[in-house]
Write a structure and sequence with these properties.
The longest helix has 19 residues. By secondary structure, the protein is an alpha/beta fold. Helix content is 34%, strand content 14%. The radius of gyration is 21 Å and the shape is elongated. The protein contains 12 helices and 12 strands. 45% of the residues are buried. Bound molecules: (2R)-2,3-dihydroxypropanoic acid. (2R)-2,3-dihydroxypropanoic acid binds next to loops. The site of (2R)-2,3-dihydroxypropanoic acid (DGY) has 7 residues, from loops.
Length: 328
């Protein structure tokens, strides 16, 4: 059977599934991802790779992995993986759709609430001894209830965020190119152009995939169009936001704050100016980080590998090699 390289320890039964299917599996044992050289060395003999968002897979790596037939990315986003180059090399590329949208939406909403109600700031202050009395003026936030949420990108995650917002009595606007859905009608989501969404929203949550079309989508003009009290939430990809423009907007008080689960680069260096703003919350790309969801993602990636190595099409392809590589 095949030799599978898994680029980090993953939760759930993924590795067991691969072994039960008869494959020889090596799991990278370190906490940090393999370096590009280590990744290349480990893929030299591999028939399949289970990769993460931290593993860049491009044409050079694919060329250096002559047996490789599938790269199964354990993420719904696959901007780390050049799916077209993989197809040209005869290698399937797959992702993990449909299993992490609720979990990621929960995190987006948790960030929204945390930013709106100063959770992180007040927790830090409490630990620093700042809780000396009940104060009628300390840590005043903004009510999500009755406010307007603008969702940029109404795919699975965006729609799950819209459901959370409906539960909190928010008006929901969406700027999106996705086909209209029943859920959207039921929730009363109003589709508007992005400038209108930015002008009307108290919270703006980003849910578009990252790529050439969305790189820097939130830039100086977009921050200038937002309300001075509005909060930006980003659980998509850091590159969708022009971070320098965000820093300038925060310095100028052009927006009310930001809650970011994704940055450029990741991790964000500790001397980055974004850490200097009390109205910015930063989490370490944990959108899909629940026990159940990460297990489902890893198992889905394993099933994609098992299918390809059995000579079948993978269930979750993001490319279609015209001439898939045969078994070596
Ligand atoms: C994804 O699936 O794209 C996430 O960002 C990884 O958690």
């Amino acid at each position: 059977m095949g030799y599978v390289f898994v680029t980090r320890r993953v939760p759930g039964r993924a590795v067991d599934l691969l072994r039960e299917a008869g494959h020889d599996v090596t799991v990278w044992p370190e906490d940090l991802p393999p370096s590009p050289t280590a990744l290349r060395d480990n893929l030299l003999e591999a028939d399949a790779a289970l990769t993460l968002v931290t593993d860049p897979v491009g044409p050079d790596l694919l060329a250096a992995a002559p047996r490789l037939r599938v790269v199964a990315n354990m993420a719904v986003g696959y901007d780390n993986l050049d799916a077209e180059a993989a197809a040209a090399a005869g290698v399937w590329a797959t992702n993990t759709p449909g299993v992490l949208h609720e979990t990621t939406a929960d995190l987006a909403f948790a960030l929204l609430l945390a930013a709106a109600r100063n959770l992180v700031l007040s927790d830090r202050d409490t630990r620093d001894g700042g809780w000396v009395t009940w104060s009628p003026t300390a840590f005043l936030g903004h009510d999500p209830y009755g406010s307007t949420l603008g969702i940029v990108g109404l795919g699975e995650i965006g729609r799950a965020v819209a459901r959370c917002a409906a539960g909190f009595g928010m008006t929901v606007l969406a700027a999106t190119r996705t086909p209209r859905t029943e859920v959207e009608r039921e929730l009363g989501v109003e589709r508007v152009p992005l400038p209108e969404l930015l002008a009307r929203s108290d919270f703006v949550s980003i849910h578009v995939p990252y790529g050439p079309e969305t790189e820097g989508l939130m830039g100086a003009a977009e921050f200038a169009a937002m309300k001075e009290t509005a909060i930006l939430v980003n659980t998509a990809r850091g590159g969708v936001v022009d971070q320098d423009a965000l820093v300038r907007a925060l310095r100028a008080g052009a927006i009310g704050g930001a809650a970011l689960d994704v940055t450029v680069p990741e991790p964000l260096p500790l001397d980055h100016p974004l850490y200097g703003f009390p109205n910015v919350t930063i989490t370490p790309h944990i959108g899909s980080a629940s026990h159940a969801t990460r297990a489902r993602m890893a198992e889905m990636a394993a099933r994609n590998i098992i299918a390809v190595l059995a000579g079948e099409e993978p269930p979750n392809p993001v490319n279609r090699p015209p001439a898939p590589r045969p078994p070596a």
